[in-house]
Amino acid sequence: MLLDDLRGWSDADWDINRQQYHQDYPEYRIVAGESSEGFDYISYFYDDERMLYADLKLDYLTTTLYETELWYMDLGRCIIPKPEKSYIIGRWMYYYFLKDSINGKLLGLFTNGKYICTDRKGLVIPILIFENEDEKTSFEEFFLRFDESVAVDIKNRIQENGIMKHIVQKEESEGKLEIRVTDIAFSYAVYQRWVKENLE
Fold first, then answer.
1. C-alpha pair distances (Å), 172 with each of 74, 166, 200
2. What are residue 19's DSSP bridge partners?
3. Which stretches does DSSP call E strand in 16-168?
4. Closest CA to 116 of 154, 73, 66, 60
5. What separation, in Å, do the N-terminal and C-terminal C-alpha atoms of the chain show?
6. Rounded to whole angstroms, how far apart are CA atoms 199 and 190?
7. Residue 112 DSSP SS3
8. Which residue of 10, 71, 150, 159 is surrounded by the most CB atoms within 10 Å?
9. What superkingdom heads the lineage (predicted)?
10. Is the pLDDT of residue 176 over 60?
11. How many DSSP H helices and E strands does the chain contain?
């Protein structure tokens, strides 16, 4: 797939020309629309929670092959395709990419093959990366049987963490929300345990 050819795509300035094309097959283009102000819970994990979003399309000539959104996080300092969301037991939400999906391949392109989302200080943002749907299912099964005493310890550490306290303050300044940033952080912490036990 052309999206796997990270070096084959033209350079792009997503603030100005808002598109890139494959250099050997220029009929394939990735095109972003005009950006607008937006909001999503994950934005609280960036230094500047303001974000922009734009329509993002993978086109072949005049045909749109795939459509999602482009997110300008940290007010444009970090640009990623819109991650997927999933819920466990109706509460624990997490953001994720599947590397074998078109969206996951776009993430690889936007992050130069690093498949990682960071803030301007280099801290990893809690977005889960899976190779495929099977890994995602494995993680959710791991989550559901996670040891409760370990879970309590993780939640306490999250509550006491200085960076998380700052993130929670930003969240609370906006009023009560459906999803709490501490829940997202907990899902990511369990994911890190899953990675250590299953992938390392």
1. 18, 10, 36
2. 31
3. 19-21, 28-32, 36-38, 51-60, 63-73, 78-81, 84-88, 92-98, 127-130
4. 73
5. 28
6. 14
7. coil
8. 71
9. Bacteria
10. no
11. 5, 9
Amino acid identity of residue 28, one-letter, is Y
Q: Residue 96 corresponds to which tokens in the numbers above?
A: 């994720």
Distances (CA, A) of 186 to 48, 91, 117, 127, 179: 21, 11, 17, 12, 12
3-state class (DSSP) for residue 87: strand
Residue 95 and residue 87 in contact, taking contact as beta carbons nearer than 8 Å: no
Q: What is the pLDDT of residues 118-170, one digit of tens each?
A: 887 788 899 999 999 999 999 999 999 998 899 999 999 998 888 888 888 87
In angstroms, the CA 28 to CA 20 distance is: 9
Residue 108 token pair: 């690889």
Which residues have CB under 8 Å from 117's CB, separation 6+?
A: 73, 78, 80, 111, 124, 125, 127
Token pair for 83: 């991650």
Q: What angle do CA 190, 194, 198 make, to 5 degrees?
A: 175
Cβ neighbours around 47 below 10 Å, total: 14
- Paired with 147 in beta bridges are none
What is the pTM for the complete model shown?
0.90
CA 124, CA 20: separation in Å to the nearest integer? 26
Tokens of 186: 């907990």
* Chain-centre distance for alpha carbon 3: 18
